[in-house]
Amino acid sequence: MYEKTIDSSPGLGWLCSREGARIAVPLCLAILALVIGVSLAGSPIVGYAALGASALALLVVILLHDPFWGLAAYMVTFYVRPGELVPALAPLHIERVVGLLALAALIWHRRTGERWEALNHRVTLMMAGFLGIMALSVVTAYWKTLAILETIEFAKILVAYLLIIGLVNSERRMGAFVWIYLVLIGWTAGSSLWGFFSGANRGFAMGIDRARGLALAWGHPNSLAMTLLAAVPFLYLLIPVERRRPARLVLILIFALSLLTIMYTGSRAGMLGVLVAAVALWWRTGRRPAMFVGITVALLCAALLMPYQYQMRMVSILDYQQDPSSLGRIDSWISGLHMFLDRPLLGVGPGNFGIAHGLAYSSPWRPSWLEAHSIYIQLPAELGLVGLVWFAGILFVVARVNRKTRQMLVAGGNVWSWHYRLAVALDISLVVLLFTGLFGHNLYRPTYYFIAGMSVALAYIVRQVAAGGPASAQNSAQGMSNKRWEVT
């Protein structure tokens, strides 16, 4: 049976009660404001440090009351990366600290509750196993320090996964989490467009101006395009069932910003991914002729209205033999196959493709540090046959979980409800990621693993709703497709 929505732990007493939170949270906010005021008159570095420490103290108080907000805070720090935007905050390792605090709060609240069934889910065990494979690959890595750092980065993604399956345990929380994710996608797209048009964060590569993300994780135009593209199916499928007009307008704005930013990244894989997403959405939503015509007209108009430099960027796909970027990728793919043949079991180590390419798989007179530019080369080259089989297993199990979720919804008469649309969006996002993975090394992209967490959480929620359990008790009278999404 799926867990109940987590309430305040009785062991924490008054502080975790509603009355205690009403006093403690404003008190912490007042202290935080005081710290900000005092720090303005002193050293900026000291001020930033004091601000960060005060914010963490406030977060601790909030987590003691409801650890769900720890997941929200972790998602915000994961996408915004305050340590990168404000270098003075980097020594605080805010993202890492917030994740550990949220995980600790989750464990604390569960110490006297029901057994955490999702922790034993096959996807969870396979995710943990994948982290173990990455750790083992450190032994065969060319640059072990880099492999360790990449493994730590994946461990942070695994923390987010655990928070998702542990805290997104009711219909309203699932709705709130999806909103948090989509708003952060909107932030990523909007901030990238601002940096592009203001010139503050505009890149120039392959002969064109290119939008880049503010955070290092999606600072490369291709990474930014893939991050935004994965959210397109969610936005397209959930906009029609959003009943509140202001909320629907926000989703439409995020949808438009995401598509516009993908275009300005100049990513050919990203723009091809939009086409694949459109075809997949048409195929999975009834294959109506009118929808096909509408999508075709929209794509043609977008291609015609696209600035000339981006049109030429897309046309260059047809003449890859004259494109240095394409030729470099082909050379990188060949080198990746040699890496796999040389170290077939565990590969050259996580995150080590570029290093191995430059040190051992290119000319010593003209070394090439080019990355794999394909998950289908990166995965076997960096993690070997073991990693390849294991990752394929994760994808298979996640797809199977989503299929069973849709079957339960159909059996309950909830075809094309909010939940059904979410399950379809999860599947299409995986398809889009795997397609764009043909041209991009996106193995460690967090979206794969966030999708896995959301799939597991949604499966448990739908199962509990079908059984009339606690996950749906508060909303059972309204029907699954007619929710006002709030955090409980």
From TrEMBL:
InterPro entries attached here?
A: O-antigen_ligase-rel_domated, WaaL-like
What Pfam families does the record point to? Answer: Wzy_C
User: How is this protein annotated for GO cellular component?
Assistant: membrane
**Membrane-spanning ranges:** 20-38, 45-65, 85-107, 119-142, 148-169, 176-197, 217-238, 250-283, 289-308, 375-399, 420-440, 446-462
> Which keywords describe this protein according to UniProt?
Membrane, Transmembrane, Transmembrane helix
Every O-antigen ligase-related domain range: 254-391
What is the designated name of this protein? O-antigen ligase-related domain-containing protein
Organism of provenance: candidate division TA06 bacterium SM23_40
